[in-house]
Every structure is written in structure tokens, then in C-alpha cells.
């Protein structure tokens, strides 16, 4: 199988595709797994299927983006969203399993036969044969925890789940409006202005300045149970860290950015960052940070949540 890396937002993501080139450089950008440092007894009260509950947003006008963030977050601009609902948390492994059982759906990673996993032993991305949503790091690694967010799902897979659930993916504007607690918050992150408060991490994030730093200070090496770090003022969980969230939109520069390059219709927006390393470090977890990847890409740190009208 061949590698097909895709670069956006100043970092590289690894796509699962049989049409790519094996001699291209791997990524130092994102990833997810289900292994945890917490004993099961400490997370037994976390419910699988927590994202079955939705938060209602009345809609309104807010300032989207940032004039102090990365170039792709600029300029800050006024946006109006209509009323919508958003899942409290990302779709869990348990919820995705119900979808697969009911629909016999086969993910794109399963069709390709492999998907993107970061291998710390070689300090590089690789296409791991046999890896898919139930075994996000491959059949020789641990099975996915049922109350963790599902990963190794492409944008196309997420669309299929949302249709089955009679929902849809959120637009990028809806996601940021929700992360800003209904457009009312001006904090860096959906929970405040710091990743660590009183010595406790507020999200499942990367600790350190490079990909070689040992993880676990926040309690988890890879993914964490959904809702583990509590809710935002709007009642949402995992709106920064844990796993990237696919959004509905095609990725393109904001109006007024001065970047008039045509959008690639196969490149879709991702928000929220993940537990894995990103070159933008703590800035990648902000409510305005943006990334994108191709619609068929599956990674071990990318999931989704649903929205509805």
C-alpha cells in the first residue's frame, strides 16, 4: 500500500489511499488511539453513547476566526448561523458499532486495507495494515474502548453515519459558534484561556514541544473517554483535544484573507485538534484554529460529532 500525505495548515496528515506514492515524506501532524493510562475503575462511570444527547443553539451573529492566529484563521469576520443542535460529544466507538451492525457499512479504511497511524518507534507516520475503527492501531494492538471517540473514520464515513442517524455534520461556522458557547465567549479555548488550571489538564492534549515527548501527564497517551474532562458552559465536551472533528465544509481561505486560490472540493474542514502532536502546539486547540484533509482520509486521531437543524 502507498502513502498519500496531504499538507494543510502548516502540517502534514497521512491519507489512506492506494493511489499515492510510497516515497513521499510522512506526517508530523495528528493521530489517535484508544490506549489509556487510567485504570478501568477510574473511568467506569463514563457512559458509552454520551453523544446521543444534543445541545440546542438558538443561532445568531458572532465574530468567527482570529486576527492574531495563523494565516488561515484570518481575518476575523462576522457570521450568522441559524438555530441548530450539536452532539454533546464526539460519536463513540459503541455508537459507531451500532451503526455498522444495523447497516453493514464498511468504512473506507477497511476497503483500502490500511489507514494512518503514527509509529513512535520510527518517529513517522505509516499506513498500518488491518487498522480500522475497531482496531485503530492495527489488529496486533488493543481494541478500541467503547466509550472513547471512534477514529479511523473518513469524512465520507462520517457522512454515512450522520445520514443513518438522521443528522448531519456541523458546518465550520456552527462548530466555532458552539465552541464559543453560542458566540458569547471570547476565550482562547472553549473552556477558558489555559490548557492547565490548578495543575489539572482541561482537555486531552499533547504535552511538549515536539513529537518525541513522552505523553501521559493529562492521564492518557492516546484517546480518552468522551466527557472525561467535563463540559463547557454550553454543555459540550471534547471541543478541544482528544480527536479532530470533521465538519461539513470544503476547506478554503476566509473572505478578505487575500488568498484567492481556488478551493479543492475534496479537502474538508477539521476542527478541535487532538491528543497528538501538532506544530502549532497549544494554538491548535483554540476555538478558531482550522485544519483540513481529503475526504477519504482516515487517521487514528480523527473522529466527528453530528449536528441537526
Could you walk me through the main structural features you see in this protein, from its secondary elements to its overall organization?
By secondary structure, this protein is an alpha+beta fold. The protein has one domain (3-308): paralog of FGE (formylglycine-generating enzyme) (Alpha-Beta Complex). 11% of the residues lie in helices and 21% in strands. The chain has 4 helices and 15 strands. It has a 4-stranded mixed beta sheet with strand order 13-12-11-14. The chain has a 3-stranded antiparallel beta sheet with strand order 3-6-15, covered by helices on one side. The longest helix has 11 residues, at 93-103. The radius of gyration is 18 Å and the shape is globular. Residues 1-51 have low confidence and may be disordered.
Amino acid at each position: 500500500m502507498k502513502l498519500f500525505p496531504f499538507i494543510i495548515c502548516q502540517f502534514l496528515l497521512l491519507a489512506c489511499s492506494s493511489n499515492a506514492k510510497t516515497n513521499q515524506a510522512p506526517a508530523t501532524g495528528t493521530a489517535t488511539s484508544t490506549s489509556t493510562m487510567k485504570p478501568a475503575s477510574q473511568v467506569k462511570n463514563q457512559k458509552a453513547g454520551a453523544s446521543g444527547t444534543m445541545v440546542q443553539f438558538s443561532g445568531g451573529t458572532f465574530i468567527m476566526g482570529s486576527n492574531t492566529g495563523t494565516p488561515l484563521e484570518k481575518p476575523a469576520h462576522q457570521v450568522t448561523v441559524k438555530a441548530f443542535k450539536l452532539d454533546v460529544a464526539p460519536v463513540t466507538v459503541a455508537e459507531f458499532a451500532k451503526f455498522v451492525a444495523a447497516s453493514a457499512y464498511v468504512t473506507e479504511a477497511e476497503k483500502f486495507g490500511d489507514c494512518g497511524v503514527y509509529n513512535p518507534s520510527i518517529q513517522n507516520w505509516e499506513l498500518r495494515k488491518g487498522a480500522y475503527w475497531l482496531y485503530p492501531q492495527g489488529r496486533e494492538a488493543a481494541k478500541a474502548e467503547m466509550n472513547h471517540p471512534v477514529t479511523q473514520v473518513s469524512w465520507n464515513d462520517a457522512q454515512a453515519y450522520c445520514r443513518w442517524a438522521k443528522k448531519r455534520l456541523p458546518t465550520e461556522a456552527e462548530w466555532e459558534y458552539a465552541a464559543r458557547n453560542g458566540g458569547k465567549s471570547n476565550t482562547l479555548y472553549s473552556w477558558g484561556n489555559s490548557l492547565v488550571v490548578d495543575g489539572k489538564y482541561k482537555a486531552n492534549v499533547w504535552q511538549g514541544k515536539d513529537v518525541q515527548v513522552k505523553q501521559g501527564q493529562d492521564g492518557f497517551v492516546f484517546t480518552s473517554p468522551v466527557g472525561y474532562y467535563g463540559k463547557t458552559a454550553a454543555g459540550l465536551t471534547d471541543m478541544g483535544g482528544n480527536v479532530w472533528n470533521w465538519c461539513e465544509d470544503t476547506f478554503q481561505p476566509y473572505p478578505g484573507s487575500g488568498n484567492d486560490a481556488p478551493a479543492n472540493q475534496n479537502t474538508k474542514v477539521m476542527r478541535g485538534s487532538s491528543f497528538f502532536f501538532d506544530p502549532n502546539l497549544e494554538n491548535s486547540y483554540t476555538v478558531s484554529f482550522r485544519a483540513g484533509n481529503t475526504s477519504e482520509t482516515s487517521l487514528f486521531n480523527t473522529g466527528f460529532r453530528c449536528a441537526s437543524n
